[in-house]
Structure formats: structure tokens, C-alpha cells
Queue: 3 jobs
Job 1
Amino acid sequence: MPRAIGKASDIDSCGLTLSELQELWLGAHPTTGSHFRSGEELVAAWEAGRAVVMRLWGSHGRRPMAWWEFDAGDLKHPGYDRERSTLWRAGVLSESERTELEAEWRREFEHAHRPDFFISTGGEVLHGDAAVQAHLAWADVPIELAQRWAAARRRRGRHEAPSEEAAVAK
């Protein structure tokens, strides 16, 4: 009886080693350098491995370093801490990513507006507006969204977090 042979995974079939895929994700190693001998090899690797690399590491508002190098157009990588808001502002996220991030950011916004909210920076404890601003910066909440949500809170006259039932309904 013939044995069914499974199809190789996209990782195996893209023709790149795991180290090469990792370089497309994170960039060249700072001390050992690139696995690719030339820029042309790097471009060819990105073409061969783009689908795999994007599936593995191009989600949740993050993009691999090769995407920033070859597909980002005029966008420049802002660093890990500001990557998600940069991609959100540029309008390059999928609808599901945008929805996911906005929901996460809204939770962080509401969390920061709870009564008696504070945050420790390691050197000091912040309260009030300073704590809110520090938390929203840490969470990479786009200022545009924070301003919109703050204006809506003022219009409603609400200065406390929504009820648990309202939060669950969202």
C-alpha cells in the first residue's frame, strides 16, 4: 500500500535556513553580521521567504526588519516601542490588527483613568495626569486616539472607568 507523504511546511519549502529566516525577522546579527553575501542575496531571500516571515512575525502590529527594509516605502523603523502606533498611523495594518490594537489601547486608556491610578518609573511614583501620560506612552497608545477618548469622556462627564458589564459588552 503506498504511503501518503505529507507536504513540506512552508518553512521547509521556502529554501532558507532558520538562521536566514531569523535575519529577515530581526536583522543581521550585530557582532557576527549577515548570513547573506550580498544585498542581492538578501533581496532574493526576502522574496523567497516573505510569506513565511510575515506569517510568523508580521502580526499584532509588528513587522519583521526585512519588511521595514524592503516593503515599508517611506516609513522608517521607529524602534520596537513605537512600531505599532507608527504602523497604525500609516494605515498599513490589516483590519483585524487595527481592531485588535485599538481594543488593547482602549483597555490601557481606561486602566490609566481608574481612580487612584499611579505608576512607578523605578525612580519615582507618578499620579494624576503624569501617570496617565507615562502609561499611555509605555503602551504606545497613539495620541490621536487618547485625545479622542478623553474628549468623549469629558462629553459624557465620566471620569471613572466603565462598568464591568460595559467593558465585557465591547
Note: The chain is about 55% helix and 5% strand.
Job 2
Amino acid sequence: MIVSAEAGISDDERRRRVYDGEVFNLPPRESLRALGDFAWELVVDAFGDLEPATAYQDLAVEEYVKILGPLKTGFTHHPRSKELLSAALVDFGCDPSETYFDLPKLRIVTPASYLTAGLGYNYTPHRDTWYSAPQCQVNWWSPIRGLTRESCMAFHPEHWLSRTGNTSKDFDAYEWNRSGRRDAATFITSDPRPHPRLTHTDPGTDVRLLGDPGSVVVFSAAQLHSTVPNTSSGTRFSVDFRTVNLRDLAVEAGPENVDSDSTGTTLRDFLRLYTYESVPEKLIEQYDLDGSAEGVLVFDPASLEQ
């Protein structure tokens, strides 16, 4: 796996290299640090008098999850999050006329002995393409606080463009919208949702990339990656989001699909920079294969309040 810290290239060049399997570990940028700082403000407010990194020591896990639900949803759907993310992507050279993003996610990973399911799910080795993402999706992952080798993300490069045994055939984007996302907060000790997983396949070696707040790891949705179970004493906080480029969608760019059998598509989650327009439906139709007729095309965050 090639890892690059080269920041001064165009978005077109970066995407091309990402599709070839390169991973970018880019140094901090003020524009992205601003997004992380905003997320941190919400975290500090949510935990009140408790230190966020160690709040798990003072709360029953059920109480902790009650804090996480509104906190994570509030950040993801806050207008300020979209504004800051749009500005950061333009700062990284993305063309606002043809770049679309999904709403940013706040990830909170406590020590693994405390919470690994539901809102604190520890992702086993997977590709985002197994979650009905397009092959040309680009992932962006940025630490806010608490990143160490014992609490980070891992890549499994031996499986780049190599078919694996996995359960992606059991994942449908629209069924996930209907119940999987809605029910996350109900799972504390185990997580029976149909997260795609490796089957009878060793993920192999793992590569762990570290960085400071405001740094970012940029990689293909087809990269096999996972959450490193947190064995440190502090909680890890990070932000991640995904982008697609309109021209790349039209020509179905990206690495070859070697092993994803998921159905439906996540493209209706994506919004254009600044204007927040949806991806044109005609393009979505190219990717909308065999999605569940009983499912939900677009997730409604209001369902979390029911």
C-alpha cells in the first residue's frame, strides 16, 4: 500500500491515485480543524462537567448511550457542520460544482471493554462498497482527540483488488435506512444488525496511520479497513465523511468491484457543496440495482425520536 503525505495536488489527481489504491495521510489544515473544533464544542457541551475522554468511567453504559444519540445526530444534521465541511472540501481543491458529500459522522470509540456495539460500534474489516457505496466513493477520516496506535483505524492492504469471502449479499441500503440506522441506540452489549463482514478470510496485516487534529486520511471506499479495538484508557473522537464526483459517477469510475454483492445505493445521501442539492436521479438510477422495494430510499433522522 502506498501512503502519501503529498498535499499540493489537484483533486482530480488525488482521486485518480486513490482509485489506484493509494492512501493519503495529509497534515493538519485549519479548514478541517475548524470542523473538528465545532464537533468538540458539541461533545464538551453534551458531557457537561465530565471530561469527555474519561466520562465512560463515571457513567453506566446505558446513560452514556443516551448522551451519544442526540450528540451524534445533532452534529451530523447541524447546518454549521455542512457549512464547515463544504469549506474544508473546497480548501482541499474539490470543485463545488461537481463534488457531493454525505453528512459528516462523529465517531466516538470508548475502550473496548465498555462499548463496542450500536452507537459505539467497532467496525470489523470491511469495504464501504459492501455498504452499497459506489466504487468511486472517496472516504475522508480525521481525528479530533485521543488518537493512538491502540485506538485508531487500520488498513488491510493485502486484500486490495483481491476477492474475499464476505456477507455483503445480506446488506441492502434501503433496509438499513428502514431499521439498521434507526435502531443503533438500542444495541449495547451486542449488535445483530447486518454489518457486512469477512467470512473465512484472514484480514492479514494491518497498517495504522496516526495524525494530529485537523489531519485527514483519504482513501478509496474499496479499501479493506477496520476499527482498532480501543485498548487505551481514553475515548477516541473522530469525524469522517465521504465524497463523490459527478463526472466520475457518470462514467462509473473507480477501482474494480471484486467482491461487493450489496444492493440498493447510498447515493441519495449525498449533497452538493454549499447548495445541498441531491445527486441527479438519472445518475442514481445507474447504481440503484435490486434495492429492497419495502425499504426506505432516504433515511429520516426524525425516526430516531420515535
Note: The chain has one domain: 3-299.
Job 3
Amino acid sequence: MIVEDVMSINPISVSPGEFVTKARELMRDHGIGSLPVVRNGRYEGMITVQDIISITSTKSDVTIDGFIRRNVPTVELTTKAEEAAKKLLGTTEGRLPVVIEGGRLAGILSIVDLFDELDELGVPDLPVNEVMTRKVIVCEPSDPISRVWRNMTEFGIYGFPVVRASQEIIGMITREDILRRGYVRFERESDKTRQSSTVQMIMTTPAITIPENESVRKVATIFSSRGIGRLPVVNGKKLAGIVDRYDVLRVCRRLMAVE
């Protein structure tokens, strides 16, 4: 399997001269955290939510050019999927530009694209508690959405379990939940309004969870069928850890064989 077999074609992109406000609108509307930057069809780099989070609406004339990440790894159409996945695991952008001759952008490879072909990568039959992250950042229903958003941006995590004081999990809140509902529009001057908006207003309940003795293969199936990227792992009703798409990819047999 090669990149051409699984990549997404005709990706949404922006140009260096466009305003940052346009980039963040696209990210919000399409639920993505990064965009390729293209000039005259040629790929120049990537721009991410983290790059533009500090730009306020009073600076609406700021252009994308000064925020381009130019060192993001790229792949080619014929790159083996497992090699591309290995590169993807080493990035913070979550997406790899696919370039062809002349530096032109042919598509985008994301972790979601790879999950459509997981069988090819050899998902192991391991229990989730061997691959999950045990130290989990959580939030409570009464937490301000503004604080949760800042934590997502600071830690580069796109979803938090919502728990009671007893660590009983009651829901999930994701970056897409916040962006889609418009509670955070990126502008810092709206902080006062956001402080009055709490997690319980937009969190998803009940949370989809997985017991810690369940198999990684089962987790991969849930990710693909439900279109989600993170699952809280529970021991009874209490939170024991969290597992995401990256955890699953890291233990795939064919990826581990790539030098």
C-alpha cells in the first residue's frame, strides 16, 4: 500500500497572502487543525491553529505569510504507507502534504486516512492497558470553556474526558465541539463572554468508553466506525487512562519494522 492509495485529494488550502482570519474560518468550518499553504500550485508549508491562536480580531489584516511552518515533512505518491505513518507520528501537525514533481500539492495524508486501511498495517492483538496513556488531562462540567480551549492549545490535545470529582467519567469535550458551536472564536477580547460558558453546556454525553482489558483491535474498529480519535479507558466507571489513534499506530507491526 502506498500513499496514493489512501491520501485525500483536493485538500482545502490557503495562500500566503490571504488573511489569517480566512485560515481560521476554514479550520473551524471543516474541523481541521492545520492547512497546507500553496502559492501558484506549489506547496510552501503548513499553518496550524496553534500558530494563529494569539491573533485577535482587531488584527484582521494580518496575513498567513508570517506564520507558515516550512519544515513540515512531505511524502510522495509512491511513498509506502508505513513509512508515511512513521513520519506522521513524528509531527505535531497531524497531516502530511503529498507533493509531486515541481513541488506541487497533490493531496494530504492524515491519520484518519491511514485508519481506513489499518488491516494493512497489522494491528496487534494487545490489551488496551498496554498502550494507553495513564496520566490524563481531564476537566469538570463546571470548568470554563475558555480554560479548556487554552489547555487544548497548550498541550496539543484535541479532546478531554469530563469527570466528576470521584474520577467517574460522564462525557467528553473535543476541539470540534468548541469550534463547531461557536463558543470560542479565537478572539481574546471575547474572554469575558467565554468565562460564563462552561463545559457542561457543550460536552458529549454519555462518553463512549472502553474497558482496560479490551483489545487494541477493538479500539481501532471503534475509531474507524465512529469517526472519533480518542477513547477514555475505564476500570469500572472510573477513568484509568486514554487511548488515541496515535497510540494504535505506534504498535502496528509494519510500522515497527520501518527503520
Note: Residues 55 and 76 are 33 Å apart (CA to CA).
